[in-house]
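Schema walk-through. Below, the input block comes first and the output block second. Nothing else is stored per chain. Lengths vary across the set, and this one has 75 residues.
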Amino acid sequence: MQVLVRDNNVDQALRVLKKKLQREGVFREMKTRRAYEKPSEKRAREKGEAVRRARKAARKLAQREGLVPGARAKR
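--- output ---
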């Protein structure tokens, strides 16, 4: 991963790097690897994540087909 520093603005480059790491899921993975996770807990967590992904995909599909109203616009 690479971030360019423009005009010696390290703060902006750091913000961009953090956003990229967040998008890639690096921070979430670091948090899960901090402590040992039992295999049964890992299965339960992964199953829950899969259910959430499936629900989100179904919701987006329903919104595209017009069955469910879309997300509200922020004011």
